[in-house]
Every structure is written in C-alpha cells, then in structure tokens.
Design a protein that fits this description.
The protein is an all-alpha fold. The protein folds into two domains: 185 residues, Growth Hormone, Chain: A, CATH 1.20.1250.20; 186 residues, MFS general substrate transporter like domains (Growth Hormone, Chain: A, Up-down Bundle), CATH 1.20.1250. Helices cover 78% and strands 0% of the residues. It starts with a helix and ends with a helix. The C terminus is likely disordered.
Length: 424
Amino acid sequence: MPSPYRALFAAPGALAFSAAGFLGRLPISMTGIGVVTMVSQLTGRYGLAGALTATLALSAAVLGPQVSRLVDLHGQRRVLRPATLIALTATAGLLLAARYGLPDWVLFVCAAGAGTVPSLGAMVRARWAALYRGTPRLHTAYSFESVVDEMCFVVGPIVSIGLSTSWFPEAGPLVAAVLLAAGVSWLTAQRATEPAPHPRGPQRGPGLLRSPALRVLVAAFTATGAVFGAVDVVTVAFADERGHKGAASVVLALYAAGSCAAGLVFGLLRLSGAPERRWLLGMAAMAVSMIPLLLVGSLPLLAVALFVAGLAIAPTMITTMSLIEEHVPRARLTEGMTWVSTGLAVGVALGSSVAGWVIDAAGARAGYGVPAAAGAVAVAVGLLGFRRLRRPAAVRGGTVGQHATHTEHDAHTEHDAREEGNLA
C-alpha cells in the first residue's frame, strides 16, 4: 500500500472503524438486488420485485437524512443502534411475508420500514473528518473510502445473487441483514473515534437544504444517480440481447474497477486550486464518457468503454465530499453527506425506471441514451450552480468558536508535517 494510505491508519482506531464501515456498507449493494432475486424466485413477479426495490430506495432517501440529523445531535452510538434495529425488524418482516405469501401491502410496509438503515459511509467519513480535518490526509481518507464504496458494489451483488440462487431465495437479504447488524455493532462499540455530538447549534435552525451549495450538489448527484441506475439496467439488457446475460456482472464490475483505480491514484495526489472547478470537470468527464456507450456494438467494446467511464466516478465523488465539508457546518456534517447519498438513491430509482421503459420501447442500445441525457443534466446543474459552490459556509465550526477552529487546524497541520517527516 502506498505510504499516504499506510499513514492514514497510523492513528489509533482508524483501521478498526474503516473495516467496520466496509462490513456495514456491503448490505447497501446486497439488499436491493437480493430482494429482486428473492421475490422473482418465490413469485415470478418481476414488477413486484422492482416496485419493492424502488420503495426501499425512496424510503432510505426520505428517512436516511433524518437518521443522520439525529446522529449529529446525539452521537452515532445512541442513534445507529435503535435505527438499525428498526431496519432489521422490517427486513425480517419482509422476508417472512415473501416466504409465506402474505398480501402485497405487507411487503410494501416492511420495505418502507427498512429505510431507517443508516448511511455507514457517511458515519465513517465523519470519523475521518474528525480525525484529519484541516490536513492533506483528509483528501486521502475520502479517496480510500470511495474505493471501499466501489469494492462494496463489486462484491455485494455477486454475493447476494449467488446466495439466493444457490442456497435459498431469502439468503441474500438475510446475510445482508446479518452483515449490517455486525457492522453497526462493531462501529458503535468504538467510542474513542466517535465524533462528538452537537446537541445545540445549527441543527435547530433552518434545514440544510436551504444551503444553495448543498442544493446544487444534491441536484447534480440525483442526475448522477440516474446515470448509475440506467447503466446497470441497460447493461444487463444489452448482454441479454447478445445471449450472454451472465457477462453483465463482469462488465459492470469493470465499471466499478475503473472507479477504484482512479480513486487510488487520486488519493495520492496533492492538488491545488479550487475544488469546485475539479468537481465540474469531473461531472463533465462522466457525461462525456457516456457517449461511446451509444456507439459500441459488442460486449468486449462495452467493457472497455465502461472501464474508461468509471475513471471519472471516484475523483468526482471524493471532491464532492470535500465540498460538503467546506459548505456544511461541522455540527451537521453527517447529515450533509447523507443528503448527497439520498440524491444518488433517488436518481438510481429514476434512472433504472426510465431506462427500463426505453429498453422496452426501442432496445438496449437506445437505452444508453438515458445515462447520456442524465449526465448532460448533471453538467447543466453544475454550470448553473457553479457560483454557489464558490461561496463557503459562513459558519463552519457550529458550536466551536472560530479561534478554536484555527487552533485545531494548525495542530493537525503540524502533526501531519511531523508524521510525514518520520515516514520519509
């Protein structure tokens, strides 16, 4: 592992909370596809399976930011455990209802209740921010976590589908629930690295979405989520049309692999200049990378095109987290990060739905017009909101005074310089 990444884990507890975050994040990529596999096997109703997955995504989009808001107010341990218990109970109800053929409305109620599942990615990033705020290592930490996200989306669906098809239909979502419980329990047991709660201050004021910069980021990432959701659905259909449906998982894994590779390299860089410019360039690169997908006619060429397209994802995500850290009051950082994840979740649901309609009407190749259009919308949002991203939040410290913020920054910078010297 390159030295900047090795240096991240020199801090006590860093490796443990990052590992717990990885374990607890795997269910995000396992549950939706697991529900589709389970319901389609038990009932043969793909329409019901898709509607339940959309309900899960939209419920998480509504409830996720509220859970993170409570985390900022009361701390991770006090909120994550009861929120996870509710999500696990709802998931158990969903599995039992599917197994015993209960009415559809029971399935939808349980799917909606599972939306209280916490955003473990935001929780882990908040711990990195508390540890390395004001130092170059925070950029490296965000890069590492983006790579972890991609690894989850490479491994999770394969494991979930494999369990449900080779063991029993409920196995994928069931194992995802067990991993979620284990990850949350392990993370919340680590009190030393838990960010301090902020029971007073900005949380009691206006909603975070009143921040112009955050609105721009959430809107842009809703369009970006539509890119991801559409690419997944259209790629499966594209492979199916060519008689190799199973190859879709390999092709999509290369899409994530491109993002992983770019994220690792991006984390080694020490970049200067305005992050909002890098962010807009990344959004433009993601949009442009969708154009070749409209032209490819074979799976090998599609695999190459998606690998190249993936190179723009992680750097853009990393820069987004840096912009959130810059524009959102520190006391509400977890909530701010979760709002971007919410935008992505809504976008994925919209993108997959629209892509499915286009595929039915005009075929898989035409379906790649959906991510291309969504990418163009993301760039348009970025251009229109660019000036808002250039105005950092006036209040960064929440309940912490400005002098204390500068003192903490200087202390972190001095500590980082000493550590870099020791490593050299």
